[in-house]
């Protein structure tokens, strides 16, 4: 075990990831970004349409925001992930079929991972190791 | 936000555990499934409802040229005027155009399309969306498209040609003041083929939706 002062940035990042649903938040944020990229319609035209056109931008922007919130405020992850999954599903209707399905899939998978994440778990035991333990017992 | 308390950081110096490594957070798959199963069901339900044409979906695409074809288009409330589309600064699609594309904006208040096919060139492969191949037709409301090319056999009812684009009132779009425009009560176009730069806030109902990749476009 390295001393705290001499830990590499890599190890610090690993610790940081271990304290939050990292992949869940990242996938949700990426899903929102992907949908936003597919619909860079000129704002001028969106203004013609009003609220209805705005929803197409609001939902992916919310996904991006919720993904970042999961990363930086993991204590509230249940609320963020439930809203995240609803917003991701809603983007099918408002935003190019959920960024042609890719962003919707990322958002739903990310939300579910964030929902299922629990802090302070036993280290994962590989299947081979478990089998060996059972054989030994 | 970043200063919010991290979980399990109550102990400032967690002692390394002798065996099994440090305790970290991780995903419990059974718990994730509690959310994943209903989400999958809802997603499947949305896709099925869309494919049956019971649910409308909204499109807003821009920056990439894409092609729309249909064997027949019938619409009420039609407007058309010229304009300039600006791309995002430094867009890779700008080329030598200076980031501006001269487009024809067409707005149709409500339209029905037969055998709609829409393709986006992603470089090497095409994303294809097909709908309305069967008996039920595609319907769209407040369809606004910016096209660079438009072809087909068109006929109009009660057409007014030469209006100022800012005075149009048959559909929901307004053009810039002092620009040539035309509008009509109804429009009928056979063998429609459009190269578009933007479709905005068109709510489509897509019965018989098929989404896929293909080597050739529409």
TrEMBL record, chain A:
<feature type="transmembrane region" description="Helical">
    <location>
        <begin position="49"/>
        <end position="71"/>
    </location>
</feature>
<keyword id="KW-0812">Transmembrane</keyword>
<protein>
    <submittedName>
        <fullName>Uncharacterized protein</fullName>
    </submittedName>
</protein>
<feature type="transmembrane region" description="Helical">
    <location>
        <begin position="21"/>
        <end position="37"/>
    </location>
</feature>
<dbReference type="Pfam" id="PF19609">
    <property type="entry name" value="DUF6114"/>
</dbReference>
<keyword id="KW-0472">Membrane</keyword>
<feature type="transmembrane region" description="Helical">
    <location>
        <begin position="100"/>
        <end position="118"/>
    </location>
</feature>
<feature type="transmembrane region" description="Helical">
    <location>
        <begin position="78"/>
        <end position="94"/>
    </location>
</feature>
<dbReference type="InterPro" id="IPR046096">
    <property type="entry name" value="DUF6114"/>
</dbReference>
<keyword id="KW-1133">Transmembrane helix</keyword>
UniProtKB/TrEMBL annotation, chain B:
<protein>
    <submittedName>
        <fullName>Cholesterol esterase</fullName>
    </submittedName>
</protein>
<feature type="compositionally biased region" description="Polar residues">
    <location>
        <begin position="1"/>
        <end position="12"/>
    </location>
</feature>
<dbReference type="InterPro" id="IPR046198">
    <property type="entry name" value="DUF6230"/>
</dbReference>
<keyword id="KW-0472">Membrane</keyword>
<dbReference type="Pfam" id="PF19741">
    <property type="entry name" value="DUF6230"/>
</dbReference>
<feature type="region of interest" description="Disordered">
    <location>
        <begin position="1"/>
        <end position="23"/>
    </location>
</feature>
<feature type="transmembrane region" description="Helical">
    <location>
        <begin position="32"/>
        <end position="51"/>
    </location>
</feature>
<keyword id="KW-1133">Transmembrane helix</keyword>
<keyword id="KW-0812">Transmembrane</keyword>
């Amino acid at each position: 075990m390295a001393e705290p002062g001499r830990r590499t940035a890599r190890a610090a990042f690993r610790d940081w990831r271990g304290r939050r649903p990292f992949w869940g938040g990242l996938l949700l944020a990426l899903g929102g970004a992907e949908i936003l990229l597919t619909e860079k319609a000129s704002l001028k035209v969106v203004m013609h349409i009003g609220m209805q056109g705005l929803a197409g931008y609001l939902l992916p922007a919310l996904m991006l925001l919720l993904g970042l919130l999961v990363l930086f405020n993991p204590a509230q992850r249940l609320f963020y992930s439930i809203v995240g999954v609803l917003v991701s599903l809603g983007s099918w209707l408002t935003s190019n079929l959920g960024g042609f399905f890719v962003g919707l899939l990322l958002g739903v998978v990310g939300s579910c991972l964030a929902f299922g994440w629990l802090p302070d778990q036993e280290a994962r035991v590989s299947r081979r190791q478990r089998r060996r333990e059972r054989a030994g017992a | 936000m970043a200063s919010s308390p991290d979980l399990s950081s109550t102990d400032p110096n967690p002692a390394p555990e002798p065996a099994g490594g440090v305790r970290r957070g991780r995903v419990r798959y059974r718990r994730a499934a509690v959310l994943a199963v209903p989400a999958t069901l809802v997603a499947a339900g949305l896709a099925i409802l869309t494919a049956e044409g019971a649910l409308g979906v909204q499109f807003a695409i821009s920056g990439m040229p894409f092609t729309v074809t249909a064997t027949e288009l019938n619409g009420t409330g039609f407007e058309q005027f010229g304009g300039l589309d600006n791309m995002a600064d430094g867009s890779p699609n700008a080329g030598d155009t200076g980031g501006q594309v001269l487009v024809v904006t067409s707005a149709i208040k409500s339209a029905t399309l037969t055998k709609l096919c829409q393709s986006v060139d992603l470089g090497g492969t095409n994303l294809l969306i097909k709908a309305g191949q069967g008996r039920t037709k595609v319907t769209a409301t407040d369809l606004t498209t910016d096209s660079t090319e438009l072809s087909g056999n068109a006929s109009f009812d009660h057409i007014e040609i030469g209006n100022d684009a800012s005075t149009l009132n048959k559909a929901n779009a307004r053009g810039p003041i002092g620009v040539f425009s035309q509008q009509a009560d109804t429009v009928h176009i056979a063998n429609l083929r459009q190269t578009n730069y933007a479709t905005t806030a068109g709510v489509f109902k897509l019965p018989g939706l098929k989404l896929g990749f293909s080597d050739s476009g529409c």
